[in-house]
Structure formats: structure tokens, C-alpha cells
Specification:
The complex is a heterodimer. Chain A is mostly beta strands. Helix content of chain A is 0%, strand content 56%. Chain B is globular and about 40 Å long. Classes of the chains: A mainly beta, B mainly beta. Chains A and B meet through strand 5 and strand 9 of A and strand 5, strand 9 and strand 10 of B.
Chain lengths: 112, 115
Amino acid sequence: SQKIEQNSEALNIQEGKTATLTCNYTNYSPAYLQWYRQDPGRGPVFLLLIRENEKEKRKERLKVTFDTTLKQSLFHITASQPADSATYLCALDSGNTGKLIFGQGTTLQVKP
Amino acid sequence: EAGVVQSPRYKIIEKKQPVAFWCNPISGHNTLYWYLQNLGQGPELLIRYENEEAVDDSQLPKDRFSAERLKGVDSTLKIQPAELGDSAVYLCASSLGGTGEYEQYFGPGTRLTVT
């Protein structure tokens, strides 16, 4: 069956460290994978998109990798700050149909 | 530029009552989505519109849910009658295009509580 899995347990790290979040998927062949941030009581906010033919994408302190062989994407936040505390969602397109399938999200807590 | 607007933000109703949610997408965005999000889960697509046409409503429980997007701009999602299990956050999103290469812009959501 098709599945997207993110770390269900919250990730707690110290300010200044690098946070690494994992998104694994099975039985999908996405052309695109997106990452979103969601704060409590608010809708998700787009962060980064990576294509199947791209290995890595960066934006300021954010980095996303996409390994279609391992069927995994890693999301890194370097020099993390308490303001980075939120839930991070990965989403992949289901056969380039425009239908995004979301993972359940990983909650990141950055402690000062 | 205004983002995606949703109303109401919160709604409490008794089971078997009807409820409606409204969404105004970002201007110029032809693609509109309605999602349902349960606590601790990611959003799940209910319906996707390209202009006024519903191009994917396979996950919409059609016995009690309905949606419309007249004139291809704002949209309404209705539940009638509501059940206890419908308690969730209903998110509306819009995008410039309808493929996975387009980022989606989400509204703040409507938190529905059915008692």
C-alpha cells in the first residue's frame, strides 16, 4: 500500500544545532516533493520544493535532499532558533496529478 | 496581497445540523483545494477545482458533503447532516497551477466541533 512516514515523535534540539527531519515513502513515484511548516492554529506554509531529478535544494538556513532510490527526503534546518519550533509536513505529488499527499508531520522544538 | 481567506474560523454545531464553510482564494489562482485535517495528522484532500470544475472529488463523502465553486473564484463546502466524526479543521488552499510543481497557499482553516 502507499504510505508516507515522518517521525511521529517530536524532535527536541538545542538552539544553534542542525535539525534533521525525515520523510520516507513507499509505492509512490513522485515527480515533486514539497515541505511545509505549520504553526498551531494556522494553515501550512510552503517552504521548499524539490524535483525528482534534483538531489538537493537550499534556501537560506534550509536544505532539502531527495533520494528517489531510497524513497526518502531529508529536511535540514541549520543554526536552529526557537522561532523554528513548529510542525513540518512533507508532501508529494501523486503521479503529477496535482494531488499532494501529506505526511503526518514532525513537531520540532528548539530550546534556547 | 491578501492570502487565502476562510470563514468562519470556528464553528460549533450539534450533530445532524448543517454547516457551511467559505473560502476566497488568492486572486488569479485557478486551482482551489479543500482539505480536512485531524489532530496530529497531515491535511487530506477532499476536493480539487480547476476554475469551476471539480477535477478530483474522489475523497469527498458525497452522501453528506457537497462543494461548489461558482464563477471559478470563491468556494463553499457544506456538510449536511454533520456527524460527530466530522470534527476537524477544514483547510482551503489555492495555487497557480494544478500540478505538483506548484506550491499551495493555505488559509487559516475552520475548526469544526460537532457535539
